[in-house]
């Protein structure tokens, strides 16, 4: 998924990442430029190795591919059938638009983690963040902002899991659908994905 599917009920101001005071966005570089950076700097060399970049290895990115492609979003829980419930974000536009009408079912009171699977295609992406806003009956009930990190191009998908959360419980929690607008953004404000989905709380996993 690389296209944007936006829910106008969630304003952009609610999906702005927190800014760290005094933080300055670093200059963006190509894979080739990163590969040629000071090879004598051990900490820099370790950072480049974590991105799959080595001296003289430029050209790892594929310019024909999107900078970032999302594959799936999952709610991971030990109690869920198969360990997770997932949304395929590679579906067509119509199927993605139907996500709000076909909410995921989450068992009340369980611990779970939001997880995303994605591929980086054409260049190093740094300072990626995942944000989402949860609304119920038009009222904001939860927000999440998590650092994804920095990643270099590779063919195999990455998976990033975020902090553990606890699903609400009780009759009130089970009484409606939670609409979520999610966004992946980097530290200079570039939005790579923006989509809407939904979940409902039930007595058991469906």
Report on the architecture of this protein.
By secondary structure, the chain is mainly β. The chain folds into two domains: 28-60, no CATH class; 63-202, Coagulation Factor XIII, subunit A, domain 1 (Coagulation Factor XIII, Chain A, domain 1, Distorted Sandwich), CATH 2.70.50.30. It contains three helices and nine strands, in the order ααββαβββββββ. The protein has helices at 31-35, 42-50, 93-97, and strands spanning 68-76, 84-88, 104-107, 111-120, 125-136, 139-151, 158-166, 177-185, 191-202. The strands form two sheets. Strands 3-9-8-5-6 form a five-stranded mixed β-sheet, with no helix packed on it. A four-stranded antiparallel β-sheet has the order 2-1-4-7, with no helix packed on it. A hairpin with a 2-residue loop joins β5 and β6. Mean pLDDT is 82; it is low at 2-10 and 55-59.
Key terms for this structure?
mainly beta; cytoplasm; five-stranded mixed beta sheet; RhoGDI_dom_sf; 40% strand; Rho GDP-dissociation inhibitor; 2 domains; disordered N terminus; Coagulation Factor XIII, Chain A, domain 1; Ig_E-set; 3 helices; four-stranded antiparallel beta sheet; 9 strands; 206 residues
